[in-house]
Amino acid sequence: MGNVIVAARSACDRWWRDTTGKPAHRLGGAILLLLVVGSLLAPLLPLPMQYRARISDIFLLCILYSIVALALNIVTGYTGLLDLGVVAFASIGAYTATILYDRPWMQFPGSFVVVLIVGGLHAAVWGLIRGAPTLRLSGDYYAIVTFAFAEIIRVIIRSESWLTGGGAGFKNFPSINAWGAKLVGGEYSGMLKSAGQWEYPSGGQWFGSSPHFYYLCLFVLVLTVGVMRRLEKSRMGRAWFAIKADETSAMTSGIDLTTNKLNAFGISAFIAGVGGALLGFKTGTVSTNVFDFWFSVVVLCGLVLGGMGSIRGALVGTYLVYGLGEVLREQVTIGSIVLEVDDRARFLMFGALLVVVMVFRPQGFLPRKRSSADDPSRTAERSDLYHLEDRA
Amino acid sequence: MDVSLLATQIVNALTLGGIYALIAVGYTMVYGIIKLINFAHGEIYMMGAFTGILLVGVGVPFFLALPASMVLCALLGIFIDRLAYRPLRTAPRLSALITAIGVSLFLQNLAMLMWSASERPFPDLYPAFMVRPTGADAASHGDQYLDNVAIKLTERAGASLGPRNTTRDGDGLKVEFPLGSTSGDARRALRETRRETLADMPGLDLSADEQSLDHFLNKPALSVDLGGARPVEIRWKVVFIWASTIVLMALLEAVVQRTRVGKAMRACALDKVTAALMGIDVNRIIALTFALGSAMAAAAGILFGLYRGSGIGYRMGFHPGVIAFAAAVLGGIGNIRGAMLGGLVLGIVQVISSAYITDWLGNWLRGAPLSSNYAFAFAFGLLILVILVRPTGLLGRGTTERA
Lengths: 392, 403
What we know:
The complex is a heterodimer of chains A (about 400) and B (about 400). Chain A contains 15 helices and six strands. Chain A has helices at about 1-20, 25-40, 50-80, 85-100, 110-130, 140-160, 160-165, 185-195, 210-235, 235-245, 245-250, 255-285, 295-305, 310-325, 345-360; strands at about 170, 175-180, 180-185, 285, 330-335, 335-340. In chain A, the strands form three sheets. Chain A has a two-stranded antiparallel ribbon. In chain A, strands 2-3 form a two-stranded antiparallel sheet. Chain A has a two-stranded antiparallel sheet with strand order 5-6. Chain A has one domain: ABC transporter involved in vitamin B12 uptake, BtuC (Orthogonal Bundle). Chain B is α+β, with helices and mostly antiparallel strands and about 400 residues long. Chain B folds into two domains: about 5-120 and about 230-390, Orthogonal Bundle (ABC transporter involved in vitamin B12 uptake, BtuC), CATH 1.10.3470; about 130-210, Alpha-Beta Plaits (2-Layer Sandwich). Helices cover about 65% and strands about 10% of the residues of chain B. Chain B has 14 helices and six strands. Chain B has helices spanning about 5-35, 40-55, 60-85, 95-115, 140-155, 185-195, 215-220, 235-260, 260-270, 270-275, 280-310, 320-330, 335-365, 375-390, and strands at about 130-135, 165-170, 170-175, 205-210, 220-225, 230-235. Chain B has a four-stranded antiparallel β-sheet. In chain B, strands 5-6 form a two-stranded antiparallel sheet. In chain B, a hairpin with a 2-residue loop joins strand 2 (about 165-170) and strand 3. In chain B, helix 1 (about 5-35) packs across helix 12 and helix 9 (about 260-270) crosses helix 11 (about 280-310). The longest helix of chain B is centred in the first third of the chain and has 32 residues, at about 5-35. Chain B starts with a helix and ends in a 14-residue tail after the last helix. In chain B, about 50% of the residues are buried. Classes of the chains: A mainly alpha (about 400), B alpha+beta (about 400). Chains A and B meet through helix 1, helix 6, helix 13 and helix 15 of A and helix 3, helix 4, helix 10, helix 12 and helix 14 of B.
């Protein structure tokens, strides 16, 4: 069995090495182009209302999770610290925005944008709070601390029901408006409810959202991608890559670990908070059942699939994971045969996907081009016996 | 403060702590040898509980079901290592950690698809009663009456509440009920039979002594009155859990410290390359480590099911798994005795914090007790604190890899 795996994997690597830079990346580029065009045009497709609404719904979900995935990409992809707690910041952003938006003194035209930013900033504060004591950590211990932190946040949210609604959280909040335009809920939720079949299988209505909201989210994603591209090329971005490659060497080369790491934590948490807030508004459900540990894992799954550290990889991976996940929810009827995938089987698939990708292609489908250093197929010679770098 | 309540809580804490310790040794052994946080370990514990109740459900005696499910889970552990972890021995460590998370996600949802999302009770272990005639006419008409009862019960056997087997045993009638029926069901069947058979026999009555394993396990082995509202009881169940924990731990210690493979395991944990040069088959030793750890986790799963009597569900491995990991870190990861100590400490922290600290802290902070959910937060907080302050743990050597 093990030999089969090793053989299959080296065949996979060989194929990839022979084709890298040419068809594979072109394929990746083509998929990316498809996703970009799809995201741009989904709400405008000349299809019956219900299909258009469902398709744009799927795209919108992918867009929102991509924002969170890009946030995770800063800490995990650029700086090389495995973060298993991105859900903490997404939920802090979502809860902050939801709670604030409900306040009577928040009822002014641009309040929607204000609560988004405040949600992100609140998440960033917690990102720094978590980051400051963990600056020395790396590897597994960092991952475990992020995980434990997220669980503590979740316990607090579940327990303090006077503020957060407890385990059930918030559901069915009123329609969301900005500058007179209805963004989420209202007539749009009515439209989807009448179409009938697009209710969440597990409680909670599938909220319809307006094209305004859709393009607002797309704008946030584009903005995030733009910021990422600038960051990658900036001094700070290069410092992050250096920290990922070797923390000690980075430090001896005069890179200020504290500042650069804290910046990564703060920026990442801010973006995750904004993404989480938008997700909460979009689905109309903010609860710890949505924002649990597996939220982090599935976002990570998309990132791993696409290739950590690469913007294109993060986007393609997230779209694949969530797009596929949503498409599998649909019931397909061909003649008298009804094809349906158990809603819960999707997670089984995500688990298997994580293992398979890690075993066969640990660098993901579209890894960073210049990061050949962290491509394990090119560095150490493979041996199935033991790792050589791990001696105490 | 009620002393006997505190004593009861400490008994609970030690039981839970022993279960955590059994899980924690698996984490610590695997980490010690391949530096992998085996995130799927909690799921092995869950699988152990499930195979346990399934085996008991098809009629395997409980004392055989425990080792049988340990063996099955050991095989599962070897299988997972072979399929998911072994191909990644040379890969960066984070890849292996992500794979472990994938395995955990996979196993959890596999369990949910196979055994449904609802939680199951731990089955009552083989309800059985010894029925004896009592009353004035017992000596003269007792035998005949018992035959009557046996016939009536046998008539029920096809129905849902009927017994599996009735046998005459000396002056009594032994009534065994089928697997899957609860003691409550069995009592109802006996009550109804008594009503039906006693209508025209004023001089007779029936006594039924429960003889099931469950009944025995729930009886107190030791009862001490400390002056509280209720005496402090240590049930046979708890004694059994403690005894099994101690025996399993002692066996593990013996294997690791006294045998050749144990020596090989320790050698691999120190330095795999040198160990391989000395002729040790490193992969086999790693597989053995997974097998031992998984067997311990499976035992923990069954013991937990026996202890709680309920709550066997696909999600049951998540929190105990994480808390046991915290225990392993607390004790010094890679150190088996440390994991045992850490498990006990975390059991105590969890029970005491949900029983006392949440109340005290809540009353001090805002005049109302905190939710007992915070017990988990305290355990996680302790984990973070240990990682930050003393990553080598309580019993860790200074040479353990620093975070």
